[in-house]
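Shift notes (night). Ran Thioredoxin-like protein while the centrifuge was going.
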Amino acid sequence: MVYESEIQFTLDTICPWTYLAKRRLSKALSQLPADCPVKFTTVYKPYQLFPEASQDGQDKYEWYKTFRYNNSDDLMQKYTKVMSSYGEPEDIKFKFGGSVANTTHAHRLIQHYQETKGPETADRIVDSLYRQYFEEERHPSSDDTLLRAATEAGVDEGEAKKFIEDKDEGLMEVKMAVRQQAGNQVDAVPYIVIEGKRRDMQLEGAKEVQEYVSTLNKVIKESA
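Came back to this:
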């Protein structure tokens, strides 16, 4: 009998560490044997790093330099080099232009299609949003970005466009979900909870692939 385990993955689509964590977790899951007695399903939970950010946004490079690195060119250059070095083994080609902006509507898209189309569609949407933002320097939550993510995930273009343009559909639900994560004491991302038969495993921050493999194997062992 196969035990079903939910992986609750709390993320923000403008957080580079959650992008790294997703890639590494995916690698770990791909290493499990075909006859694994546990079926893992990833469910995405919304979190906002900068809820006060506007929808229009502002220059990402300058924002990071000013608000995260004390307006220091040297510190900013070190950051870009470090993130690039982390991204390379995961086949992520980080770029640092584009805009930092509010991610409410990106989360609205993920949650809506996670509920209506299922986890595989949500997973493809998340992949597209990450790639567009971090590797193509596209706006994180513009209508064009969201539509591209939805269609790349296999959603009908007309259906997706109708949902994206109705800014109120699912808005209250996603705001409540963000508040719920805060109420669950989530104050940083990535935050991952892997449900187990005996206990849940919690992982905070972007871990190495082997740590994800080890944690998954603990869940498998305790589910026997």
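The mean pLDDT is 96. Residues 46 and 177 are 7 Å apart (CA to CA).
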